[in-house]
Amino acid sequence: MPGLALVYDLGGASLDVTLVRVGAGCPLNPIVGVPIRSTEFGGRAFGALVAARAGNGTVPAAISGAVTGATADELRTIHIRSSLKLVYRCLRMADVTMADVDCVLVVGGAARPVEVAQVLAGELARPVITAPDPERTIADGAAILARRAAAADEEVTGHHPRRRPRRAKTRALLLSRRTKRRLTRVAIAAGMSAAGVVLALALPADTVVAGLSQLGLR
């Protein structure tokens, strides 16, 4: 029986919350329910909150009552705690509760500060997994999937293509230029953060396309 992970993707421009089946027996489409996105949370929104604390900006309505006298760490804690409404909405739409969730996976360029994982662990009472470089998690995952797919193809066909560095490099460059906009649009629509897409496209194009194909985003 596959497990259930809640992916908390806190990027620079938005927060994306998605429930995903993981592990043995995982279905071809692992997403449970409907992914939810909000631009009220993320690096840009937190910057606006800090600016408002300094008297130079506007506080988002969701957290307008908790700014006065707060430090930067306290503001981030308020910011993450306020975002939990998206988590619970995602759970309701999938007709599950946190008791059904095995772990919380934290990714995204704005997820590095320790307060993010601390608040989620304390409020959700589930194991929280954060990579050392959370902004690279999606790109690294795409690369791993592509490598596994290539290895599986070699086992089935017994074909080991010759290495042609110069030609492969040219093809990757052309493929990246031709598909960058389409992949970015489709990947963001499927729940990847903008930062994750940029990092993914920094990888060799053949690797990214293969990885996105395995994820069902191509």
Question: Concise description?
Answer:
This protein is about 50% helix and about 15% strand.
Task: Explain the overall architecture.
The protein has 218 residues and is an alpha/beta fold. It contains eight helices and five strands; from the N terminus they run βββαααβαβαααα. Helix 4 links the parallel strand 4 and strand 5. The chain is globular and about 65 Å long. The C terminus is likely disordered.
Topology, pairings included?
Layout: E1 3-10, E2 15-22, E3 31-38, H1 43-53, H2 72-82, H3 84-94, E4 103-107, H4 114-124, E5 128-130, H5 137-157, H6 165-189, H7 194-201, H8 205-214
Parallel strand pairs: 1-4, 4-5
Antiparallel strand pairs: 1-2, 2-3
Helix pairs in contact: 2-4, 5-7, 5-8, 6-7, 6-8
User: Assembly state here?
Assistant: single chain
Regions with little confidence, pLDDT below 50 for 5+ residues: 166-176, 203-218
Number of helices: 8
Distance between the termini: 27 Å
Features:
218 residues, alpha/beta, disordered C terminus
